[in-house]
Amino acid sequence: MTGYKENQLIHIDPIEAFQDNYIWLIHNDQNSIIVDPGDAGPVISALERKNLNLVAILITHHHADHIGGVMALQEKYPHIKIFAPQKDKYDFVNISLKNGDEINIPELQINYKIIEIPGHTRGHIAYYDKKNLFCGDTLFACGCGKIFDGTHEQMYNSLKKISALPKDTKIYCAHEYTKKNITFALSLDPDDTNLKLRKALVSNMKNTIPSSLEEELKTNPFLKCTSLEAFKRLRDLKDQY
Ligand SMILES: [Zn+2]
Protein backbone atom coordinates (compact mmCIF):
# COMPACT_ATOMS: atom_id res chain seq x y z
CA MET A 1 0.00 0.00 0.00
CA THR A 2 3.02 2.30 0.31
CA GLY A 3 2.60 5.29 -1.96
CA TYR A 4 -0.98 4.47 -2.83
CA LYS A 5 -2.25 7.67 -1.32
CA GLU A 6 0.08 9.79 -3.40
CA ASN A 7 -0.64 7.84 -6.55
CA GLN A 8 -4.38 7.67 -6.49
CA LEU A 9 -6.14 10.18 -8.68
CA ILE A 10 -8.70 12.38 -7.01
CA HIS A 11 -11.01 14.43 -9.20
CA ILE A 12 -13.13 17.35 -8.08
CA ASP A 13 -16.02 18.04 -10.45
CA PRO A 14 -18.78 20.63 -10.29
CA ILE A 15 -22.41 19.54 -10.39
CA GLU A 16 -24.56 22.50 -11.35
CA ALA A 17 -27.83 22.98 -9.46
CA PHE A 18 -30.58 25.61 -9.34
CA GLN A 19 -29.61 28.95 -10.90
CA ASP A 20 -25.97 29.22 -9.91
CA ASN A 21 -25.14 26.64 -7.20
CA TYR A 22 -22.18 24.29 -7.33
CA ILE A 23 -22.44 20.93 -5.59
CA TRP A 24 -18.89 19.54 -5.47
CA LEU A 25 -18.24 15.91 -6.37
CA ILE A 26 -14.91 14.58 -5.06
CA HIS A 27 -14.07 11.12 -6.37
CA ASN A 28 -11.60 8.46 -7.39
CA ASP A 29 -12.56 5.75 -9.89
CA GLN A 30 -14.98 4.07 -7.44
CA ASN A 31 -16.01 6.18 -4.50
CA SER A 32 -17.21 9.72 -4.00
CA ILE A 33 -17.94 12.52 -1.56
CA ILE A 34 -20.55 15.21 -2.16
CA VAL A 35 -20.34 18.73 -0.72
CA ASP A 36 -23.57 20.66 -0.03
CA PRO A 37 -26.17 18.73 -2.04
CA GLY A 38 -28.99 21.27 -2.29
CA ASP A 39 -30.72 19.03 -4.80
CA ALA A 40 -30.52 15.22 -5.05
CA GLY A 41 -31.54 14.91 -8.73
CA PRO A 42 -28.40 16.22 -10.42
CA VAL A 43 -26.21 14.41 -7.84
CA ILE A 44 -27.80 11.01 -8.52
CA SER A 45 -27.54 11.60 -12.29
CA ALA A 46 -23.84 12.44 -11.99
CA LEU A 47 -23.10 9.44 -9.72
CA GLU A 48 -24.93 7.04 -12.05
CA ARG A 49 -23.33 8.49 -15.16
CA LYS A 50 -19.85 8.08 -13.66
CA ASN A 51 -20.75 4.78 -11.97
CA LEU A 52 -19.66 6.02 -8.52
CA ASN A 53 -20.52 4.85 -5.03
CA LEU A 54 -21.38 7.64 -2.56
CA VAL A 55 -19.64 7.32 0.81
CA ALA A 56 -19.99 10.73 2.49
CA ILE A 57 -21.72 14.10 2.41
CA LEU A 58 -20.04 17.24 3.73
CA ILE A 59 -22.33 20.10 4.77
CA THR A 60 -20.97 23.64 5.22
CA HIS A 61 -24.12 25.33 6.55
CA HIS A 62 -27.86 24.92 7.00
CA HIS A 63 -29.34 26.82 4.03
CA ALA A 64 -31.83 24.85 1.93
CA ASP A 65 -29.84 25.23 -1.29
CA HIS A 66 -27.00 23.32 0.45
CA ILE A 67 -28.93 20.56 2.26
CA GLY A 68 -32.19 20.11 0.30
CA GLY A 69 -31.01 16.86 -1.29
CA VAL A 70 -29.60 15.17 1.81
CA MET A 71 -32.69 13.14 2.82
CA ALA A 72 -33.21 11.73 -0.68
CA LEU A 73 -29.51 10.82 -0.96
CA GLN A 74 -29.56 9.18 2.47
CA GLU A 75 -32.53 7.10 1.39
CA LYS A 76 -30.85 5.99 -1.83
CA TYR A 77 -27.40 5.43 -0.25
CA PRO A 78 -28.22 4.32 3.33
CA HIS A 79 -24.61 3.70 4.40
CA ILE A 80 -23.24 7.18 3.78
CA LYS A 81 -21.77 9.31 6.55
CA ILE A 82 -23.13 12.83 6.79
CA PHE A 83 -20.94 15.52 8.33
CA ALA A 84 -22.35 18.89 9.41
CA PRO A 85 -21.57 21.85 11.69
CA GLN A 86 -22.13 21.28 15.39
CA LYS A 87 -23.63 24.74 15.89
CA ASP A 88 -26.60 24.00 13.58
CA LYS A 89 -29.62 21.75 14.04
CA TYR A 90 -30.46 19.30 11.28
CA ASP A 91 -33.42 16.98 10.66
CA PHE A 92 -31.11 14.23 9.42
CA VAL A 93 -28.69 12.18 11.48
CA ASN A 94 -25.20 13.59 11.18
CA ILE A 95 -21.71 13.61 12.64
CA SER A 96 -21.33 17.09 14.07
CA LEU A 97 -18.08 18.99 13.62
CA LYS A 98 -16.38 21.89 15.32
CA ASN A 99 -13.25 23.95 14.71
CA GLY A 100 -10.06 21.85 14.66
CA ASP A 101 -11.79 18.50 14.19
CA GLU A 102 -10.30 16.18 11.60
CA ILE A 103 -12.24 13.65 9.60
CA ASN A 104 -11.00 10.80 7.50
CA ILE A 105 -12.72 9.34 4.47
CA PRO A 106 -10.92 5.99 4.14
CA GLU A 107 -12.47 5.02 0.79
CA LEU A 108 -10.71 8.00 -0.82
CA GLN A 109 -7.81 8.24 1.64
CA ILE A 110 -8.60 11.90 2.25
CA ASN A 111 -8.40 13.83 5.52
CA TYR A 112 -10.21 17.10 6.09
CA LYS A 113 -9.54 19.61 8.80
CA ILE A 114 -12.57 21.56 9.97
CA ILE A 115 -12.29 25.34 10.09
CA GLU A 116 -15.15 27.29 11.63
CA ILE A 117 -15.87 30.32 9.43
CA PRO A 118 -19.05 31.94 10.82
CA GLY A 119 -20.58 35.12 9.42
CA HIS A 120 -22.87 34.10 6.54
CA THR A 121 -24.42 31.84 9.17
CA ARG A 122 -23.31 31.43 12.77
CA GLY A 123 -22.45 27.74 12.38
CA HIS A 124 -20.72 27.81 8.97
CA ILE A 125 -17.69 25.52 8.59
CA ALA A 126 -15.15 24.79 5.84
CA TYR A 127 -13.43 21.53 4.91
CA TYR A 128 -9.71 21.79 4.20
CA ASP A 129 -7.42 19.03 2.90
CA LYS A 130 -4.24 21.17 2.81
CA LYS A 131 -4.72 21.86 -0.91
CA ASN A 132 -8.42 22.56 -1.40
CA LEU A 133 -10.87 24.55 0.70
CA PHE A 134 -14.61 23.89 0.48
CA CYS A 135 -15.94 27.12 1.93
CA GLY A 136 -19.65 27.14 1.03
CA ASP A 137 -21.05 30.68 1.04
CA THR A 138 -18.24 32.42 2.95
CA LEU A 139 -15.55 33.39 0.42
CA PHE A 140 -16.69 33.71 -3.20
CA ALA A 141 -14.53 34.44 -6.22
CA CYS A 142 -14.04 38.20 -5.95
CA GLY A 143 -16.73 38.45 -3.25
CA CYS A 144 -18.08 37.05 0.00
CA GLY A 145 -21.38 35.75 1.34
CA LYS A 146 -24.16 37.92 2.73
CA ILE A 147 -24.63 38.15 6.47
CA PHE A 148 -27.63 36.03 7.54
CA ASP A 149 -27.63 34.64 11.09
CA GLY A 150 -23.97 35.44 11.73
CA THR A 151 -22.42 38.88 12.21
CA HIS A 152 -20.20 41.21 10.18
CA GLU A 153 -17.48 40.80 12.78
CA GLN A 154 -17.60 37.01 12.46
CA MET A 155 -17.39 37.23 8.66
CA TYR A 156 -14.52 39.70 8.81
CA ASN A 157 -12.56 37.38 11.11
CA SER A 158 -13.43 34.30 9.04
CA LEU A 159 -12.07 35.95 5.89
CA LYS A 160 -8.88 36.77 7.80
CA LYS A 161 -8.63 33.13 8.83
CA ILE A 162 -8.95 31.96 5.23
CA SER A 163 -6.44 34.61 4.07
CA ALA A 164 -3.81 33.04 6.32
CA LEU A 165 -3.93 29.67 4.49
CA PRO A 166 -1.22 28.87 1.91
CA LYS A 167 -1.59 31.05 -1.18
CA ASP A 168 -1.91 28.11 -3.55
CA THR A 169 -5.02 26.82 -1.74
CA LYS A 170 -7.80 26.21 -4.24
CA ILE A 171 -11.06 27.88 -3.28
CA TYR A 172 -14.18 25.83 -3.97
CA CYS A 173 -17.15 28.05 -3.18
CA ALA A 174 -20.78 27.13 -3.71
CA HIS A 175 -22.01 29.73 -6.23
CA GLU A 176 -21.02 31.03 -9.65
CA TYR A 177 -21.10 34.78 -8.90
CA THR A 178 -17.65 35.65 -10.27
CA LYS A 179 -18.54 37.93 -13.20
CA LYS A 180 -21.09 39.93 -11.17
CA ASN A 181 -18.60 40.23 -8.31
CA ILE A 182 -15.86 41.50 -10.64
CA THR A 183 -18.27 44.08 -12.08
CA PHE A 184 -19.01 45.31 -8.54
CA ALA A 185 -15.31 45.41 -7.61
CA LEU A 186 -14.50 47.37 -10.78
CA SER A 187 -17.26 49.87 -9.97
CA LEU A 188 -15.26 50.74 -6.85
CA ASP A 189 -11.85 50.67 -8.50
CA PRO A 190 -12.17 50.96 -12.29
CA ASP A 191 -8.42 51.25 -12.91
CA ASP A 192 -7.29 48.21 -10.92
CA THR A 193 -5.02 46.27 -13.27
CA ASN A 194 -5.47 42.91 -11.54
CA LEU A 195 -9.25 43.23 -11.65
CA LYS A 196 -9.21 44.16 -15.33
CA LEU A 197 -7.01 41.15 -16.03
CA ARG A 198 -9.33 38.90 -14.07
CA LYS A 199 -12.35 40.23 -15.95
CA ALA A 200 -10.67 39.41 -19.26
CA LEU A 201 -9.63 35.99 -18.00
CA VAL A 202 -13.15 34.88 -17.01
CA SER A 203 -15.06 36.63 -19.81
CA ASN A 204 -15.33 33.47 -21.91
CA MET A 205 -15.53 31.00 -19.03
CA LYS A 206 -18.79 29.41 -17.96
CA ASN A 207 -17.37 27.81 -14.80
CA THR A 208 -14.83 30.02 -13.05
CA ILE A 209 -14.44 27.93 -9.87
CA PRO A 210 -12.11 26.96 -8.27
CA SER A 211 -10.08 30.09 -7.89
CA SER A 212 -6.93 30.28 -5.81
CA LEU A 213 -6.34 32.14 -2.59
CA GLU A 214 -3.53 34.03 -4.32
CA GLU A 215 -5.97 35.30 -6.95
CA GLU A 216 -8.46 36.30 -4.24
CA LEU A 217 -5.84 38.16 -2.22
CA LYS A 218 -4.99 40.14 -5.36
CA THR A 219 -8.51 40.97 -6.52
CA ASN A 220 -11.17 40.33 -3.86
CA PRO A 221 -12.19 43.66 -2.30
CA PHE A 222 -13.48 41.93 0.85
CA LEU A 223 -10.05 40.43 1.54
CA LYS A 224 -8.44 43.85 1.18
CA CYS A 225 -10.44 45.43 4.03
CA THR A 226 -8.09 46.41 6.83
CA SER A 227 -10.74 47.20 9.44
CA LEU A 228 -14.12 45.86 10.52
CA GLU A 229 -15.68 49.25 9.76
CA ALA A 230 -14.38 49.19 6.19
CA PHE A 231 -15.66 45.65 5.79
CA LYS A 232 -19.14 46.62 7.03
CA ARG A 233 -19.29 49.57 4.63
CA LEU A 234 -18.25 47.38 1.71
CA ARG A 235 -20.73 44.62 2.58
CA ASP A 236 -23.54 47.22 2.80
CA LEU A 237 -22.55 48.70 -0.57
CA LYS A 238 -22.63 45.25 -2.16
CA ASP A 239 -26.01 44.45 -0.58
CA GLN A 240 -27.42 47.58 -2.20
CA TYR A 241 -25.63 47.18 -5.53
ZN1 LIG B 1 -26.06 30.10 2.32
Automatic annotation (TrEMBL):
The gene is gloB. This is Hydroxyacylglutathione hydrolase. Monomer. It comes from Candidatus Methylopumilus planktonicus. One of its GO terms (molecular function) is metal ion binding. PANTHER family: HYDROXYACYLGLUTATHIONE HYDROLASE, HYDROXYACYLGLUTATHIONE HYDROLASE GLOB. Residues 20-175 form the Metallo-beta-lactamase domain. Its EC number is 3.1.2.6. It is an enzyme of class 3 (hydrolase). It comes from the Bacteria. NCBIfam families: GSH_gloB.
